[in-house]
Specification:
β2 and β3 form a beta hairpin. The chain has 459 residues and is an alpha/beta fold. The strands form six sheets. Strands 12, 13, 15, 16, 18, 19, 21, 22, 24, 25, 27, 29, 31 and 34 form a 14-stranded parallel sheet that branches. The chain contains ten helices and 36 strands. The chain folds into two domains: 255 residues, Spore Coat Polysaccharide Biosynthesis Protein SpsA, Chain A; 177 residues, UDP N-Acetylglucosamine Acyltransferase, domain 1. The N terminus is likely disordered. The N and C termini lie far apart (64 Å).
Length: 459
């Protein structure tokens, strides 16, 4: 993978010709409907290749499990595939098979174990029994490590395959620097081979059209020729791309469709490429939020996971991290260097600098920080104030209550309009178990107070 600077044309930047917006949208909608109808008729299934060890990651763990913008790497392709509504979806797993299956298990997804990882062709061989039993006419083979892959591009591939009536159709793209990629060799427009760089001639190395590893097959023709694959090559592996030459030798048609946005077919082969992909996804997320009405002061210095939701008129300042399944309401202000993970914030919440919030609920019109720490299911009700160097753990702070300075509230329940003086601690642990503290509505706790739980302070 390399940064998508070359020939990475965004779909919305392509020329659409001279037409009114209404007519253009109508044609797009009609074309989409026709494509959906053809795909429904095709009865296609999807095979996701996700068995590799990812040696270049230098990791004991499957590449599919490494985190990318808050999700496992393999989750992105699964989501793109699910949008297609295929007849069947299989994932070929191998390295850390049990962990990968646990991470991605869901209705409609079946797993096939490739006990020895001997190439992409061998992965498809491992799925042969499922392919033979399938009622689908087409098999879409997708790599598991292309997180930018779009379901629309996969639809176009299937539609192109149907139109060509081919034995196989490859998804390709064109780049300025094709170093490291298999080259697409054509003759008269037809694909005659995919040549790996190691064995490419000087002329073939100048070819800028490259292989993505994503192919659509006629199921019967795939099964008829699959056993012809050999590992007598430089990699000593069964390569799925060798089927292109095999089909040509048997006078079967091979077609290709070119992905205009080359970023979509970028794989993630090592941790540096993972970092580059992380940047792309995070900037894409920041752009989407900005266009929905959120102010992202410095997108390159802000870290927002893919699943995060932020309401309009919220301002996110530099250094903020919004992670996991976090949701932030409208018109909130998140000041620099705060980290909010798997939490829900209401409307008009102010998070002052350097706060940490993890697994908590914060209601509307609350002020947090600076340097506040909320964790383990803390609930902060409307108009409460949690100030500098205050930690709230597994506690509920009532409406309008205040703990402004240097306080620890653990396993505590505070009613409405409670005032907690500086240096107050709920001493919740007696050496064996955690004990609760209850402070009822309107109570005033003076500075430096140690509340040795279990204890109740009345109204």
């Amino acid at each position: 993978m390399r940064p998508p600077g070359v020939n990475a044309v965004r779909p919305y930047q392509r020329s659409v010709g001279l037409q009114t917006p209404t007519s253009g949208l109508l044609r797009t909608f009609e074309a989409s409907e026709r494509m959906e109808a053809r795909m429904a008729e095709a009865k296609f299934s999807v095979l996701i290749l996700a068995a590799g060890k990812a040696t270049r990651f230098k990791s004991d763990h499957s590449k599919m499990l490494h985190r990318l913008a808050g999700r496992p790497l393999g989750e992105y392709v699964l989501r793109a595939v699910a949008a297609l509504k295929p007849r069947e979806t299989w994932m070929v797993i191998g390295h850390e098979a049990a962990e990968v299956q646990k991470a991605f298990e869901r209705p409609g997804l079946a797993f096939i174990e490739q006990k020895e990882q001997m190439g992409t062709g061998h992965a498809v061989m491992a799925a042969r029994d499922r392919l033979e039993q399938s009622g689908s006419s087409l098999i879409l083979v997708v790599v598991g490590d292309a997180p930018l892959l779009d379901s629309g591009t996969l639809r176009e591939l299937v539609a192109a395959h149907q139109k060509a009536r081919a034995a196989a159709t490859a998804l390709t793209t064109k780049v300025e620097d094709p170093t490291g990629y298999g080259r697409i060799v054509r003759k008269g427009g037809r694909v005659t081979g995919i040549v790996e760089e190691k064995v490419a001639t000087p002329a073939e190395r100048r070819i800028r059209e490259i292989n993505s590893g994503i192919l659509c097959f006629d199921r019967k023709k795939l099964l008829a020729h699959l056993n012809r694959l050999s590992n007598a090559n430089a990699q000593k592996e069964f390569l799925l791309t060798d089927l292109i030459q095999i089909f040509n030798r048997h006078r079967e048609k091979v077609a290709a469709t070119v992905a205009a946005d080359s970023r979509q077919v970028l794989g993630v082969n090592d941790r540096w490429e993972l970092a580059a992909m992380e940047k792309i996804l995070r900037l894409r997320k920041a752009e989407a939020l900005a266009k929905s009405g959120v102010t992202i002061v410095n997108p390159e210095a802000t870290y927002i996971d893919d699943a995060v939701v932020v309401g309009p008129d919220t301002v996110v300042e530099p250094g903020v991290s919004l992670l996991g399944e976090t949701r932030v309401g409208r018109a909130s202000t998140l000041r620099p260097y705060s980290t909010i993970t798997d939490s829900v914030l209401g409307d008009r919440v102010t998070v002052r600098p350097c706060c940490v919030v993890s697994g908590c609920e914060v209601a509307s019109d609350v002020i947090l920080g600076p340097f506040a720490h909320l964790r383990d299911g803390a609930v902060i009700e409307e108009n409460a104030r949690i100030g500098n160097f205050v930690e709230v753990k597994k506690s509920r702070v009532g409406r309008g209550s205040k703990a402004w300075h240097l306080t620890y509230l653990g396993d505590a329940t505070l009613g409405a309009n409670v005032n907690i003086g500086a240096g107050t601690i709920t001493c919740n642990y007696d050496g064996e178990k955690k004990n609760p503290t209850t402070i009822e509505e309107g109570s005033f706790i003076g500075s430096g107070t140690m509340l040795v739980a279990p204890v109740r302070v009345g109204r």
